Amino acid sequence: MQAGRQAGRQAGRQAGRRTDGRTDRQTDRQTDRQTDRQTDRPTDRQTDRQTDRQTDRQTDRQTDRQTDRQTDRQTDRQTDRQTDRQTDR
């Protein structure tokens, strides 16, 4: 009878260990996933903001350059016209 009890206890312990091990693994996975998600979110947001800022700066620079060129062209044309008029007189 004692042998039966011991075998039963061992089987119970092993089953408990397996169940505990599975539960621990599942809990660890869930915790890891949540931690990863929480860590990834701020990182993603920061990356998005940085990317947006860079894109905005580049766009602003390009717009400024184009505007400067257009302004320069218009100024040059007006200056040329005035010079031509004065020369023609």
Automatic annotation (TrEMBL):
<feature type="region of interest" description="Disordered">
    <location>
        <begin position="1"/>
        <end position="89"/>
    </location>
</feature>
<feature type="compositionally biased region" description="Basic and acidic residues">
    <location>
        <begin position="17"/>
        <end position="89"/>
    </location>
</feature>
<feature type="compositionally biased region" description="Low complexity">
    <location>
        <begin position="1"/>
        <end position="14"/>
    </location>
</feature>
<protein>
    <submittedName>
        <fullName>Uncharacterized protein</fullName>
    </submittedName>
</protein>
